Automatic annotation (TrEMBL):
The lineage of its organism: Bacteria, Pseudomonadati, Campylobacterota, Epsilonproteobacteria, Campylobacterales. It comes from the Bacteria. Residues 6-51 form the PhnA protein N-terminal proteobacterial domain. It comes from Candidatus Sulfurimonas baltica. This is PhnA domain-containing protein. PANTHER family: PROTEIN YJDM, PROTEIN YJDM-RELATED.
């Protein structure tokens, strides 16, 4: 049986990421040995977005909320990598990966950028940290002011920009300049 047929049989004839059925093909999760164990059945929409990460549609990949619970290691590894690309640390933290699966997943994530995020005191910030806002900040487009002393928990780092982090204030996801934050 060919790998494509084997994967389609395993997936029930749908994409193992989003459940779509258009243009199903196999996708090897590197490093791959070319078997169905290291491959995933994906649709043409998922493939196009994976191959062009700059044009990824985060809304399409809301499906990763479901695929992250797959029993198939290759699906979990690919989901972990996509969540990493989308900066979805909240979902990555909820995923359960065996040690060998986590090593496989992290081996395929490109080297972390050399961008270092520092707060107003020069303390290095990491994804998942809690920070405190040190100045009242008007949030443009949201219609509220983030007050001084507000704690922002479980922050995400903006990979290409050392001056910004991403976090939730009053339930709204916003970008905040690191010069207005201190690590708590």
């Amino acid at each position: 049986m060919s790998i494509v047929k084997e994967l389609q049989s395993r997936s029930g004839g749908v994409c193992e990421l989003c459940g779509g059925s258009d243009g199903l093909t196999d996708f090897e999760v590197a490093p791959s040995d070319g078997s169905s164990e290291t491959s995933v059945c994906i649709c043409s929409t998922c493939r196009a977005q994976i191959e062009n990460p700059d044009s990824m549609d985060e809304n399409h990949f809301n499906c990763l909320n479901d695929s992250m619970w797959s029993e198939i290691p290759a699906v979990k590894v690919l989901t972990f990598r996509l969540l990493s690309l989308l900066n979805r640390q909240d979902l990555m933290d909820m995923m359960y990966l065996e040690e060998i699966e986590r090593a496989w997943a992290e081996s395929g994530i490109g080297s972390k950028s050399s961008v270092v995020h520092k707060d107003s005191n020069g303390v290095v910030l990491q994804a998942g940290d809690t920070v405190v806002i040190i100045k009242d900040l008007e949030v443009k487009g949201a219609g509220f002011t983030a007050k001084r002393g507000t704690a922002v928990r479980n922050i995400s780092l903006v990979h290409d920009d050392a001056e910004h982090i991403e976090g939730r204030v009053n339930g709204t996801k916003i970008f905040i300049l690191t010069k207005f934050l201190k690590k708590s």
